[in-house]
Each structure stands twice: as structure tokens, then as C-alpha cells.
Amino acid sequence: MIILRIASGISDHFPQRVSEWIMTAAILGWSSVLAGDTNTFATSKSFVVLASYFSEPNWSLICFIVGMTRLAALVVNGTFRQFAYSPHLRGAASFIACVFWGQIALGVCLAWWGGGSGTGVVAYCTFMAIEMWNLFRAWADVGAARKGR
Asked: How far apart are CA 102 and CA 131, in angstroms?
């Protein structure tokens, strides 16, 4: 019965949260790539700046925690009405993901100015913009939930 309730809760809110689900997959994908290949940063000039902050295993762990927190918030969102803080969790996860994608965008931008590829600048700035939208939507839901109480 709980599985049906979760499935119903996810499907009811999926159209409004599709960008959050996509970005959850992106950050968990990043986590798995970095966990699977600890030479990712060494093979591209675009990640020199990121490597100066943390190692691949540390970035992988951060991405995994953010991705799983967001996944939990998306599953709980609308499924369990007594848990009123899922928009807060979604907002926090979006904020952290904004910072994450922003750091990557900054890193690839600096690498591009130093002779690296510029394609990552467009891709990661787009990811950051999507996360900014997700952040806006989550905090709008926080406000709507407060008005509803």
C-alpha cells in the first residue's frame, strides 16, 4: 500500500517537478562518474579549478548526499502531507546544487580563458540556471504552504 501511495505522490507532482528530477539525475550521474573514475579531473583542463577545491571522491560524496537528499524530498513531497518541510528540503538541495553547478561553471570558465574548451561553460551555466529556477519554485512552494496553514 505504501508503494502505491509513493507512486501516486510522485506521479501527481512530477509535471511540476520535472526539472528537479532531471537535475537530481544529473547530480547523481556526476557522483557516479567521479566515484567510478578518480582520474576525471586529471584528464581535462576544464576541471583544474575543481580539483584545487576537493578530490574526485570528495566531490562524488557531496554530489551523492545532495542528490539523495533531493530524491528523498521529491519522493516525500505531496506523498506525506504531515511532513510540511519537503519544500524546504527541495529548496536547500537546489541551493546547494546551484553552488555546485556554479563552481563547475566558474571552473570551466577559468579553464576556457586558460586554453580549455568553452562548451562546458554553456552547459554548466545552463545547469546552474535550471537550478536557480528550481530554487525559486521550491521557495515559492514554502510560501504557499505557509499561507495554507
From this structure: 10
Report the C-alpha gap between 95 and 132 in whole angstroms.
8
In the three-class reduction of DSSP (H, G, I as helix; E, B as strand; rest coil), residue 81 is classed as: coil
CA dist 130 and 83 (Å) reads 26
Burial of 104 (0-12, 13-18, 19+ CB in 10 A): buried
Q: Which tens digit of pLDDT belongs to each residue from 45-71? A: 778 778 888 899 999 999 999 899 889
Write the pLDDT tens digit of every residue in 68-112.
Answer: 988 988 888 767 777 778 888 888 888 988 988 988 888 888 888
Q: What is 24-76 written as a DSSP string?
A: HHHHHHHHHHHHH-TTTGGG-GGGHHHHHH--HHHHHHHHHHHHHHHHHHHHH
